[in-house]
Amino acid sequence: MDHFLQVNQEYVGDVNVTRLPDNVVREFIIFGFPSLQRFPLLLFCLFLTIYLFTLTGNGIIFILIIMDRGLQTPMYFFVSNLSILDMSYTSVTIPKMLAKFSMGLDVISFNECFLQMYFFISFAAVECLLLSVMAYDRYLAICSPLHYPIIMTQQLYVSLSAVAWVGGFSCPITVLILALRLPFCGPNVIHHYYCDHPPLLQLACTDTSFNVIVGSSFSAIVLSICFTMVVVSYIKIIRAVLRIASTNGRKKTFSTCASHFAVVNIFFLPLIFMYIRPTPSYSSDVDSLVAMLYTVLTPMMNPIIYSLRNKDIKDALTKKIKH
Question: Over 70: is that where the pLDDT of 145 sits?
Fold first, then answer.
């Protein structure tokens, strides 16, 4: 990888000084899953299947919600946003992985790498905010059913969705700017399967303690607020469910909420592990597997948990198929 380094020679008096200019690295090499590098075809088939399932499932849900008037409610409006988000979320990382496993295209340019990092973190932040908004929506619907139509107006749920998207794309800007100011002079191998903030910091040719602190602080603020909102909402939902007189109604509502909360935990807990750590040291194998939970598994499961198990969605799908 010596061809990635450009060295400037300067003479100060009689002393020959070798100086590395800032940002001499112009491209990075993606080296994810080091323990599985001998099985590229297996990884390609696995991730292609997951990607197609994610796009198909979320695409069907989005189209159904747009076309069926019976699904024009606040809950399904948020679900449609989640479907768009999951399709975008996976499209940031998986296509590059497929190109690497199928054609050995493991090189990514400097600008593309940082764009991938920005969009990935932005979509992750949007999903955190959107999941907390959806939990709040379910809390209102279950705990205050009589006041729900009055509180959750079209203006409110559109505004909440807009805040999630704008807030998600605004959060990583400071982290991105600080990372772009770092000097990268080699090595240029990213021990991860996409460009992410923690592994990129390991490649900088300077102390990154400040970047780690800022990144961890931003992550801690967003994750703690969103996760707390979700947990509090579902605790109140569970309390309300336990007061339902009908046994069948209680089981049905509790089953749905438990599924939602399980998916939320699969998304939030790995994120907390990855981004709220006061150390720049990361294990590529462990981190790649942990990252798969929120980058691949959660977007694939969301259509099943939030929609395809739902009677309204199944009825709308059956009606469209018959027509």
Answer: yes
pLDDT confidence band for 307 (50 / 70 / 90): low
**Domain limits for position 318:** 2-322
- Interval 101-115 mean pLDDT: 90
| pLDDT at site 19 | 40
- CATH of residue 129: 1.20.1070.10
Q: How many domains does the chain have?
A: 1
Please, is 15 exposed, middle or buried when counting C-beta atoms within 10 Å of its C-beta (0-12, 13-18, 19+)? exposed
Q: What is the pLDDT of residues 241-294, one digit of tens each?
A: 877 767 776 776 676 677 777 778 888 888 888 887 655 455 566 777 788 888
User: Residue 296 — φ and ψ, nearest 5°?
Assistant: -120, -50
Residue 113 to residue 252: CA distance in whole angstroms: 45
Instruction: Supply the mean pLDDT for the chain.
Output: 82
